[in-house]
Amino acid sequence: MGACVIVGGSKLSGRLKVQGSKNASLPIMAATILNRSKNRIRNVPDIKDVHVMIEILKVLGAKVSLTGNELTVDTSNVNIWEVPENLMRKMRSSIILMGPLLGRYKKVKVSYPGGCEIGPRPIDLHLKGFAALGANISESHGFIYAEADKLKGTNIHLDFPSVGATENLMLAAVLAEGRTTIRNAAKEPEIVDLQNYLNKMGCNVKGAGTDTIKIEGCAIEDLNEVDDYSVIPDRIAAGTYLVATAATRGNIVLENVIVEHIEPVLAKLREMGCNIRTLEDRVQLWVDKPLKALDSLRTLPYPGFPTDMQAPMMALLSTVEGTSIITETVFENRFKHAEELRRMGADIKLNGNTAIIRGVKKLTGAVVEAKDLRAGAALVIAGLAAVGKTVVEGISFIDRGYEKFSEYLLTLGANIERLN
């Protein structure tokens, strides 16, 4: 699993280019199945989840290569509609392959996916949507089967604005007959990026970024290759580096950001007293006075405060004088990092989906374990701010979503070493 050894006390300072978005890259990679053609995608992060998706696409018959951050995918020879169980279990996002495989082959077989254990993330919304499009769904022995003579456009109203369900249904509906309308759709920027990619391929999708998405179905023969597409920057990675800088009371300039995408995080950092300057695709954050606690931080679907930033913010708030309250409304089991932060001297009390954080003068180094991707990042941030040496075990979770995390922190002046 590997570990990071951190000696805290160094202020992060410098410039950093933010990686491409993990949560945009994975559904776009799944979308390449649809056009039976060549796809060239830039700004793809070199992370573990991307490599798992590459492995899956290769098993399905695609030719795939990742050079630096440029990905080429040729799906002209994809001829398998079943995703191997061992690969499904490696990554939660693998469920996103159901939509394009069902669209292209009118049948698909997958097992229940794996990934970080941050609470129930039921896929019933995905399956109800596929059924509405005309698929017959059956489940047995841990596998899910979906099959249809043909998919037909329909009206779908999601019970919850699920990002995964919205994307999966978009991917299935582009090859359905007629119009599909998805209401109460998720509004995340990654969904807009998927729409833009699908339209570049020749699909007809409108409304991403609002709660109503309309898709006019097309024939697979109408789709073309995508010669050049650049994935949006990763708003969660950007937020993580900003929070890490705030925790060390440092000064950072982030490049390759879409400021609007990180505004929910910037708003809370400003409320705490961080200095923030934004300019086109850059943002600067620096701290020159004591930071303040937050009366209320509540995670919500976009454009609310992202659940993926809750753990890093808890680490930061543990270092700020006063009492802060975090309410987690998206995932019910996403406070596993609190216990590990307490090992470092943090004063955190949990009550259901609420965490009460009383800031301490200094966190102290300890041996802690990452239980999931964002919790791992939070523990590294705590280690950067702590007195003494911190060992964060289980950093393979961090590799799932952050490109060269320890290396980039090193360039910003962190005293951090990775042990494999």
TrEMBL record:
Domain Enolpyruvate transferase: 8-408
Signal peptide: none
Keyword presence, Cell membrane: no
Sequence positions that bind UDP-N-acetyl-alpha-D-glucosamine: 92, 121-125, 308, 330
GO cellular component: cytoplasm
Active-site residues from the entry: 116 (proton donor)
Pathway(s) served: Cell wall biogenesis; peptidoglycan biosynthesis
Keyword Cell wall biogenesis/degradation carried by entry: yes
Pfam families hit by this protein: EPSP_synthase
Domain of life: Bacteria
Record-linked CDD domains: UdpNAET
Catalysed transformations (reactions): phosphoenolpyruvate + UDP-N-acetyl-alpha-D-glucosamine = UDP-N-acetyl-3-O-(1-carboxyvinyl)-alpha-D-glucosamine + phosphate
Main subcellular localisation: cytoplasm
A GO BP annotation: cell division
GO molecular function: UDP-N-acetylglucosamine 1-carboxyvinyltransferase activity
Similarity annotation: Belongs to the EPSP synthase family. MurA subfamily.
Function: Cell wall formation. Adds enolpyruvyl to UDP-N-acetylglucosamine.
Annotated protein name in UniProt: UDP-N-acetylglucosamine 1-carboxyvinyltransferase
Protein source organism: Caldanaerovirga acetigignens
